[in-house]
Amino acid sequence: MSAPVSDYPGERLGRPVSGPGSIARPGRRIAGLLIDYAAATIIATAFLGYDQFALPDEAGWRLFAPMMVFAALQIVFIPTLGGSPGHRILGMRLELQRGGWVGLWRPIVRTGLLVLVIPAVIWDADQRGIHDKVVGTVLVRS
């Protein structure tokens, strides 16, 4: 037997086709990611002296400063505001698959997988990346 085919992303999760609570679509998700990473790069440059053109032996850990700031933004803002700054600016929020607050540990695990990139770019039929599936979360429109 094959799995039932859904008509739209989120149908199998009991999510509406559009509007609040519907699955956030890829364009919105990617734009949110770009906003978050741009903010992280600006913060890293301002406070940590990030220099993208320095040689690794000259800059050391500072080459990874934007990614560290990005991870910190995700880990702090997801449990407190329901999403990263990029998510919230673009009208999205992260919640448990069954609804509700994501708690404290899920944003840490999700962010760890997100910075590895590969888990975030492999999606299922509901447009959920492996990083969301592992922790049982879903990014929806608010």
UniProtKB/TrEMBL annotation:
Q: Please indicate if the UniProt record lists Hydrolase as a keyword.
A: no
Domain of life assignment = Bacteria
Record has Nucleotide-binding as a keyword: no
Q: Which InterPro entries match?
A: Pra-immunoreactive, UCP021697
Which parts pass through the membrane?
30-50, 62-82, 103-123
Region of interest: Disordered: 1-20
Keywords of the record: Membrane, Transmembrane, Transmembrane helix
UniProt-listed PANTHER family = PROLINE-RICH ANTIGEN HOMOLOG, PROLINE-RICH ANTIGEN HOMOLOG-RELATED
Q: What is this protein called?
A: Putative RDD family membrane protein YckC
Organism expressing this protein natively: Microbacterium marinum
